[in-house]
Amino acid sequence: MNFESLQVGQRLHQIDKGVITTAHIMRWSAAVENFHRIHYDAPFAIQHDGLPGVLINGSWKQHVLVQLVKDALAPSGWLWRLKFRYRKMDVAGDALRAIADMVEKREAGGFGFVTLKIALIDQLDRVSTEGHAIGVLPLAGGPPVPYPFRADPAWSTQIGFPQDA
Amino acid sequence: MSEPAQAKADPAALAAWVGREGEPKRSTATLDRETIRRFVQAIMDRDPVYFDDTHAATSRYQTLVAPPLFPVHAFRTAADAPDPLVSVQLDPNADATAGNDGVYFGLPPIEHPFIRLLNGGNEIEFYRCLALGERCVARARYANVQLKEGRSGTMLMVDIETEFRTEAGDLLLINRQTLIWR
Question: What is the pTM of this model?
Fold first, then answer.
């Protein structure tokens, strides 16, 4: 990953998760011990809660967005900030992909900062979750991004999310 | 007809919750390989820093780690806690969320008359990943609590800010979650 070569407007990364079935939802729910019936009990989800189907966990979708940006910036960059909102529900049978597009780049404090527009999109191109991420990259010939990451307090005011985030 | 929820909401009482902190909450267990394996298989992330010791040793992490947002899910039902699934044995309409505390992290719930909860989104800052053998501690506080007028009437907006640190005090991440009650 080379900060200098990145272009505003480019698709930085995409992850295709494919069709998310009830088995995938069950695997996630079991991994985090979430027993909420809307994630495996179709009659409960549809008839009791009035949902369109067995719901894909919002918590699972968060991790897909984190993976998207982490991988987009690997290995030298760091996902510093992430902001997102859920726009619609996804249910078992939906095919999900995550995209990250470059919307801004700037330098501050000896590092390169990229702002990415991120989204989860289903098989009908409907956006279910969207937001922005801010990543930090080393500059050519500059120091590596520190780990653990340390943010200069000034960066939080200098480098914010776009207004529509 | 029952009184609308907004008529019963007391703005001053709600504002008094702002700044209130919960007790620090320790994760159920130290991070182990099996927990990482099940977790990353479930999110379908094959990054070798999660399972390949040799690769992880030469990475920035220097050891196996969990995904950046894992600490939010490191708080499970303790072995000596009441069985949360008793709720569905007692009530066929129970949703089986009893015992879940993935939002409040020990904060006392706010008393209010609203019924329907929506997730208003998250804003997260990442600083470090939880490493193999480490345990994390969450500390939550009410960052903002206010009534707001929306298209469908009055809403209660609640921002919960939770800091996750290692037991040694290293900052892992800060999660700000907005809850919208209608």
Answer: 0.94
Q: Does B140 map to a domain?
A: yes
How many pairs of residues across A and B have Cβ atoms under 8 Å apart?
A: 103
Q: In chain B, which residues have pLDDT < 50?
A: 1-2
- How close A6 gets to chain B, by Cα (Å)? 22
The ipTM (two decimal places) reads 0.96
Q: What is the overall mean pLDDT for chain A?
A: 95
Angstrom distance (rounded) from CA B99 to CA B106: 11
Find out whether the peptide bond into A75 is cis, omega within 30 degrees of 0.
Answer: yes
- CATH of residue B27: 3.10.129.10
Tokens at A104, concatenated: 């801004």
- The domain containing residue B161 runs over which residues? 5-75+105-181
> What pLDDT, on the 0 to 100 scale, is given for residue A156?
82
Tell me the residues of A at the B interface, defined by beta carbons under 8 Å apart: 17, 24, 27-28, 30-38, 44, 48-49, 58-60, 62-64, 66-67, 70-71, 74-75, 78-86, 131, 147-151
CATH of domain A3-19+57-158: 3.10.129.10
